[in-house]
Batch of 2 targets.
Target 1
Amino acid sequence: MRELKKLWIYVKKYKLFFFGGLFFIILNVIFSMIPGYLNRRIIDDVINGQQMELLFTFLVTYIAANFLRAAAIMIQRFFTESLSQNLLRDLKQDLYDHLQRLSFNFFNNNRTGELMSRMTGDMEAVRMLFADGMIQFTRAIFYIVFVMAVLIPESLKLSLVSLALSPLIGFFAYRLGVRIKPIFRQVRRQYSDLNSTVQENISGIRIVKAFHQQCYEMEKFDEENNNYFTKNYNAAKIWSKYFPIMEFLGGMSTVLLLFYGGRLVIEGEITLGIWMQFNSYLWMLIMPMRMIGHIVNMFSRTSASAERIFNILETEPEIKNKKKAVHIDRVKGEIEFKNVSLSYGDEDILKNVSFHAEPGETIAVMGATGSGKSSLINLIPRYYEPTDGQVLIDGIDNRDYDLRDLRSQVSIVMQDVFLFSETIASNIAYGQPGLDLEKIKRAADISSARNFIEEMESGFEEVIGERGMGLSGGQKQRVSIARAIVEESPILILDDATSAVDMETEHQIQQALEAMDQRSTLFLIAHRISSVRNADQILILDHGEIIERGTHEELIKNKGQYYTMFKEQYKEVIDEKEIEERWVK
Ligand SMILES: Nc1ncnc2c1ncn2[C@@H]1O[C@H](COP(=O)(O)OP(=O)(O)OP(=O)(O)O)[C@@H](O)[C@H]1O
C-alpha cells in the first residue's frame, strides 16, 4: 500500500487522465447495464404486454447504448493509456536520472541485468496497473454497486440467491491470489536472473569463446531458463487448480438463479422480464468475484515491482554534495593527501598515505597489483571517500567542493577503457557536443591517435562498435587518452592507460603531454620504469602504504623496491655496474 501511495505522487500529475479514466469506466459500466434492462422491457412490455410500438424505441436505445458503450471504452482506454504511458515515462526518467547520481559502490553491488529488469519488467508491471488494473478494479466495484442497486428493489430474495455463491467464489479467488503472489515474486526474481545471465554472456562473449565455455554457458542459461519455465509453470498449475472451481461456482450461480428465479416467476412474484434481467446481470456479479484474485494479484505484483523501483529511487548516493559546497571554475591543481586511509568493508586498502603535488607536476604511482593504486587515484575525483584523513585540492578538502565542479576538474583514463558505439570524434568529444574538430584532432595528436584514425575509411567519423569494438587495445587506449586530454582539465589521471601501447608511442604521448601549454597535474599509474622515470615524484605503494618516494634518480640511489624493478626491467641492456656509475655514485 505504501508503494501505491508513493506512486500517487506520479499519478497526480495526470489527474485529468486518472479521473477522466475513472469517469468513463463508470459510464462503460452504466452503458453495459442498459441491454439487460432492455431485455426485461422487451419480454415484459413488448412480448407479454403486446406493445409492439415500443420495440423500435427499445432497439434504437439498444443500438445507442452499444454505441455509447463502445465510445466510453475508447475514451476510457485513451485516458488510462495516456496515464500509464506518461507515468511510465516519468518513472523511467527519474530512475535513469537517479542511477546517474548513484555512487560507484552501488554499481559494484548491483548486477546490470537486475537493474535492466527494473527498468523494463518492473516498470511494465507498474504501467499495467494503471492501464488495465484500474479498469478491472473500478469495473468490479461499480458492477456490484450498480447491479445491486437495480436488482435489490426488484427482488431482494433473488438478489441474495444470485449472490449466494459469490462469497465462495471470492474466497477461492482470494486464495488464488495469496498462493500465487509468492510465485509471481519468484518469477520476477528469476526473470532478473535470466536477464543478468544473458547480459553477462553477451558482454563477455569473447571470453566465453576464448575459454571454449559455450557449453558451460548454454548449460547455465538452460538452468536459468528452466527455472523460469518451472516458476511460470507452477503459477499456471495454481491457476489451473483454482480457475475451474471458480468457473464451476459461476455456473452453479446460474443454476441457482434459473431454479429459484424460475420458481418466483411461476409463483408470480417477479415477471419473466425481471428474471431475464437478473440473468443478464449475473456475470456482472460473478466477474468481480472471480477477478478478486486477479486484482489482488495485480496489486501485489505492482506493489512488489514498485517496491523494487522505489528501493533504487530512495537509495541515497553515498557521495553527495555538502549543503554549502564550494563552487570552482578551475583549480590550480595542487593536490595533497593528508594521512589518508581507505577501507572497503573490513579490508584496509590504503594506510596513512600522505604526499603533496604542486600544480603541473607529474606524480607516478607504482606498486604490485592490488597494492591500492587505482583506489588512491579514485579518491581525487571523490569516486570514493577516505575512511580517514583528507584529500586536499588547492588546499580545500575535496569533500567541500561541489561534486560536479570537482569532477569537471579531473579527467581520467581508466584501466578498463570504455568507448561508446558512436563515431570516434564524438567519443573524443564525449560530453562536449559541437566541439571544434580541430580541438579533437589536436587531442588525438597528443595521444598519438591521429594517424591511425585518419587512416580509417571515414577517419574521425568512423563509427566504432560497442565498447570500442573494431579497435585494437592500444588504439582504444589512445582514443580514451584523447577524450581525457580534450577536456583540458587541470588534473589528469592515467590509470595504466598506456599498458597496451608500445614504448615508443608511450614516450611520444608523454612528451606531447609535457609540451602542452597548460600542463595538468598528472597522475600516472604504470608498471614500466620507462613510463615513470621523468615524473617529478614517484610513489611506490605496497599493501596500501607508500614505502618509497622520490625521483627516478633518488629511488635508484635508495636501492629499494624501485631499484629492484629497474634492474629487472633493464637487465638486458644495462648491468649493475653501469647503474652504480650512472645513478648511485
Ligand atoms: N570497490 C571495491 N570494493 C572492495 N574491494 C575493492 C574495490 N576496489 C578494489 N578493491 C580491492 O582493493 C585492493 C586494491 O585494489 P586497486 O584496484 O586499488 O589495486 P591496484 O593497485 O590498482 O591494482 P592493479 O594494478 O591490479 O590495477 C584490491 O585488493 C581490491 O580487491
Target 2
Amino acid sequence: MFTPNEISTSASTLFSAYASLAASMMLVRSMANELIPPQLRSYLFSAFSYFFTPLSSTLTLVIDEHCSMVRNQVYDAAEVYLRTKISPNTDCLHVSKTQRQKHLDFAIEKGEEITDTFENLQLIWRFVCTEPKNQYSSERRCYELVFNKKFKDKVFDSYLPYVLLRAKAILEEQKEVKLYNRDCPYGDEDGSGGGMWGSINLEHPSTFDTLAMDPELKKFIIDDLDRFVRRKEFYRKVGKAWKRGYLLYGPPGTGKSSLIAAMANYLKFDIYDLELTSIFSNSDLRRVLLSTNNRSILVIEDIDCSVEIQDRQNQGDEYQVQTRSKLTLSGLLNFIDGLWSSCGDERIIVFTTNHKDRLDPALLRPGRMDVHINMSYCTSRGFKILASNYLGLHHRSSHHLYGEIEGLIDSTEVTPAEVAEELMKSDDANVAFAGLVNFLKRKKAATEEVKEEAGSDKNEDQEAKRLKTDGNVKKIRIVRNIRSRGVRGRTRGR
Ligand SMILES: Nc1ncnc2c1ncn2[C@@H]1O[C@H](COP(=O)(O)OP(=O)(O)OP(=O)(O)O)[C@@H](O)[C@H]1O
Ligand SMILES: [Mg+2]
C-alpha cells in the first residue's frame, strides 16, 4: 500500500518525466522539420504510424453501386435484403410507392447502420453517400459491410451468397406479373420506355386453384412447369435451349387463356401477348422477339387464324421471291427455334387454337410443342371446382341438385365458361343451381337435336349415293326434297 505522500511524489515524478519527453519530442520534431525534406518526412511519418498504430480487428467491404458502367449486383441485392432487416433502432428511413406497386418500399438513409447476424457472426451494414466531386459527376453511393476479420472466408463463401439468394427470393415473392402487348408501343406505364412492348400489371385472378380441370391434368401441368424451371443444368448438359412449348387446344370458353394466366401467376413469369397479324415480316418478328425478357411466356393465341399456313415446298420460284420477306408459320417456328437456341433462358411459348386439326404439321412435329393440352368441355370433376369456388359448395351432399347437375354435365357438351356464367347469376345456391339445371337440360336437348339432324343428313347422303349409282338422278332430288321438308317440319314443330 502507498501513503498519500508517496502517491503525490510518484505523480509529480511521472508528470515531470512526461513533460521532459514531450519537450524532447518537440525538439526532435523541430530539428527534423529543419533537417529532413518534407516528402521524406511524410514517408517516415506514415511508416511510423503503420508500425505503432494498434492493428484493427475489423474488415470493411465497400460495395459500390456500380462496377464500371453496369450496376453492381451485390449492391442491388444488399438494398433489397436490408429492407427486411430494418430494426427498431433505425432512426431514419426512406419510404416510397409508385402507382403500380402493391407494397411500400423502404430504404435506409445515408449514414444509417443496420446490424445483422448470420450463424452467430455479427455484421454491420452502413449506407454511405459522398457528394459529387463536381457538377459533372454524380453522388457516389455504396454500402460498407463491417465484420471481424477472422470471419472473412465465411462472409465471402457463405454470407454474401446468402444475401444474393435471399434478395432474389424476396424479389420473386414481390414480383408483379406483367402483361406485355404491342398496343401501346411508346413505353410502359411506369414510364420506363419499353419501346416495342407496352406493359400493364397482369390482374388476371386465374390460378391453378380456380381452374376447373381434371385434377390429374392439372397436376401434370404443375409438375411439368416445376420440372422445367429447375432443369437449367439438365438443358445445358444435353445441349438443348432452355425452353418449353405448350399447345392448348379446345373449344372457346374451356379455359385456354385462363390456364395461361394461371401458369404466369404460378411461375411469376411475365406474359408477352403476340398478335401475329401486326407483324409483317420475319425481320419485324426478330426485332419484337429479341426485345422480350427471360423468364417469360410468349403467347400466340388462335395460331390457326394468325398466319397463312403455306406449304413452301410446293410453291414456285416466283412465289418464293414474293413471300421471302413475309411472315409464314414455318418461318416463325424456325426463327423461334433459332432465337431460343442462341439467346434467352427459361422461355415458355404457348400457342392456342380452337381447331387442332387445322394446324400445320410443322407445328405438331415432335419436339416443337413439347406438351399438347386438350382443354375439354366441363366434366363433373371440373364442376366440383366451380361449385366450390363460386358458391362454396364442396360436396355432392351439400345440395339436392348437385348429383343431377353432375349427371347432366357428364352427358352434355358444356364449357366451363357457360357453367361459370350460370353459377354467377345468384348468390343463392338454390336459384343458381336451378338455373344451371334448366340451362343444361336445354343445352342437352339442343345438342341431341343437332346430332339427329346430322345423322339424318348422313343417311340421306348414303341413299343419294346409292341412287346416283343407279343413274336415277330424278329420284335423288325427290328424296332430298322429302327429307329436308321432313326435318324442317320437325324443327319448327318443337
Ligand atoms: N377451365 C375453367 N376453369 C375456370 N373458369 C373457366 C374455365 N374455362 C373458362 N372459364 C371461365 O370462362 C371465362 C372465359 O374463359 P377463357 O377465356 O379462358 O376461355 P378460352 O378457352 O381462352 O376461350 P377462347 O378459345 O374463346 O379464347 C374465364 O374468364 C373464366 O371465368
Ligand atoms: Mg382465349
